[in-house]
Write a structure and sequence with these properties.
about 260 residues; 10 helices; two-stranded antiparallel ribbon; mainly alpha; single chain
């Protein structure tokens, strides 16, 4: 049964991964996430149902559009696969619980942010605001529920979460101001600072500092490669913050617990 549910979460994740890619690309451009339907960016061909199956459609179509034969980037199936793996891993780690719901919400938001920031160098305020609202409800329920629901504990947990988010926000703002001073130009976008509020809400402000260092560590080799090959290229920091957050969220700072899921 465990394998069955893990498989369901994987499939569900791949489907949502395809949708998140659309949301992350269209939302910053003020385009509808519903219309027009998914289509080939080269010829405009509207994709049929069999062309929308995550991962497999890309393979069955020979990695090309069925109409114009333009090559389709491998980024799409890789992103869908990654989303499926993250959803499956989250289930194996947290089971059916409120914590699982919270983790899947955070992962979903961060995946959309990765696409958005990478494609358009922006993190839309709509994503941040929506994330804060949904996560506030989930954090309230998670803190309030203990055998029977306690309203006061829910509000205390939510208030503590907001305080952690605010501290993380201020820390990131100070980092930006210091970077602006050192580099004599804007060193970080406002979306990264707002994202830090969500990270602080979920992980705590101390852990958000760890996210900041880990994301910088991950970004360093990429930045060096870009500096050598494309000196004028702008490197979005949101994806690195997102990846670091997902790593710490799933491992819960205990790598052994994370590895144990592979021995089930």
């Amino acid at each position: 049964m465990e394998v069955y549910y893990a498989t369901v979460f994987f499939i569900f994740g791949t489907v949502l991964g395809s949708f998140y890619n659309v949301v992350g690309y269209r939302l910053p451009l003020n385009q509808s996430i519903i219309t027009p339907p998914s289509h080939c960016p080269n010829c405009g061909h509207t994709l049929k149902a069999y062309e929308l199956i995550p991962i497999f459609s890309w393979l069955f179509l020979g990695r090309k559009c069925s109409k114009c034969k333009q090559k389709i980037s491998c980024f799409y199936p890789i992103f869908e696969l990654a989303t499926g793996i993250l959803f499956m891993t989250s289930y194996l780690l947290f089971g059916f619980s409120l914590k699982l719901l919270l983790v899947l919400t955070v992962i979903s938001l961060l995946l959309i942010i990765i696409i958005s920031d990478y494609q358009t160098l922006t993190i839309p305020d709509e994503i941040i605001l929506f994330g804060i609202i949904i996560l506030s409800i989930e954090i309230f329920l998670l803190n309030g529920y203990n055998e029977q629901f306690n309203l006061l504990n829910g509000f205390k947990g939510l208030l503590s979460s907001y305080l952690n988010g605010l501290i993380a926000f201020v820390i990131m703002l100070l980092v930006k101001l210091f970077g602006d001073f050192v580099f004599k130009k804007e060193s970080m976008g406002g979306g990264d600072i707002k994202l830090m509020f969500i990270i602080g809400m979920v992980l705590g402000f101390k852990e958000s500092i760890m996210v900041l260092f880990l994301s910088a560590f991950i970004a360093l080799p990429v930045a060096l490669i870009i500096l050598i090959t494309k000196k004028d290229h702008v490197l979005p920091f949101g994806p690195f913050l997102s990846v670091a957050t997902i790593i710490l969220l799933l491992t819960e700072f205990n790598l052994q617990n994370f590895l144990n899921i592979f021995y089930i």
